[in-house]
Amino acid sequence: MLTEFQKRKLSLRFYMADTSKDGIVELADFEQQGQKVAELRGIQPGSTEYEKIISAYRNIWSIYWEGADTDGDNKVTLDEYLKFADRVIAVKTDEKTKLEQVKALFDIIDVDGNGEIELKEYAIYLKAVGKSEEDAKIAFSKIDTNGDGKLSRDEFAKALYDYHASNDPQDPANWVFGSY
Fold it and tell me: I need a labelling partner for 94 at 20 to 30 A (CA). Which of 12, 35, 42, 132 fits?
């Protein structure tokens, strides 16, 4: 059962994903996020790189969000999302599975494909969902737990998993999506 603290964090995540601000999350919200990332990176619509970004964001919808659509209307409400998150968190996941689950999101953020997320890459990701550069800097410094200025796949996977599962208000992973 989700705690009030988890519900608060996950609700913030939900409303960040709702780029249209209509109270539901759907594929179009992720396409808008992809468009914003492309714009922030200076990539023109119609280019191969642009289509790759949009495709990756569509993939995020299908991997992480579509499963929450319990009534099959291709829209996720906050209630559906919280119930889905509760079910997913209840399943204890090993480290290998955690890494596989975050692969698609990690690859979107890792713009240069070097296997690490740097601050400038993380800032683009958070700016696409409405966070400021300053918020991205703070968030990155919190989840870069070893302080080396980059996030490895392992580090990011742990932070993302703990963001959803942790009930500890002091957990650095609470900052994955910026201030909470």
Answer: 12
Reference 97, options 18, 146, 160; nearest CA is 160
CATH architecture of 95-175: Orthogonal Bundle (1.10)
3-state SS, the chain, equals CCCHHHHHHHHHHHHHHCCCCCCCECHHHHHHHHHHHHHHHCCCCCCHHHHHHHHHHHHHHHHHHHHHCCCCCCCECHHHHHHHHHHHHHCCCCHHHHHHHHHHHHHHHCCCCCCCEEHHHHHHHHHCCCCCHHHHHHHHHHHCCCCCCEECHHHHHHHHHHHHHCCCCCCHHHHCCCCC
Q: Is 3.40.50.300 the CATH number for 1-91?
A: no
pLDDT digits (tens, 9 = 90+) for 113-134: 899 999 999 999 999 999 999 9
Single pTM value for the model = 0.89
Tens digits of residue pLDDT in 95-114? 676 667 778 889 889 988 89
Distance CA 131, CA 154 (A): 24
